[in-house]
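INFO batch 0412 | record 1 of 1 | parsing
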Amino acid sequence: MLGDRWGVSDDETRRRYPCDDFVPAPNLRAWRGVTVDAPPSAVWRWVAQIRLAPYSYDWIDNLGRRSPQRLVDLPEPVAGEAFTTAGGRRRGRILSAEPGHHLTGEIMGAVLSYVLVPDAGNTTRLLLKVVMRTNPVIALGGCLGDLVMARRQLLNLKRLAESGDGPAR
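INFO prediction complete | emitting tokens
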């Protein structure tokens, strides 16, 4: 599908992701990935903070509110909690989480898995897979829209994790 891959290898698209367990026979499948020059523990703290804000284009999906640029001391994510907060409202829900390894949630009918894979040295591959069952036209539009938003989100998470910023005070 047009726009279904950004920053991922063929091997990364063939691996199994937690979201695959929640959507049988999806007709929207999209993979995104970025290498982060930080260990998985540093990347995880930012991924887990998606519960506070979308970290994409804040003027679009957060009504102009800026996503936090410092870490907040949060408990680990738990299935059933809100997946994210956008425009001041909680959205979606967490379906599963394995701290330090993956966060899987549902929002607007799509299921997303953020997966952290330790890479060579002290780097991390931050992978995202999105799956959904919908009609083909919505699937194409959703895939292209996700490409724009998810790319920005992953690049923001990369920048923040690499900056080494500690918890907010």
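INFO post-check: Helices lie at 10-14, 40-48, 58-61, 136-163.
INFO record closed
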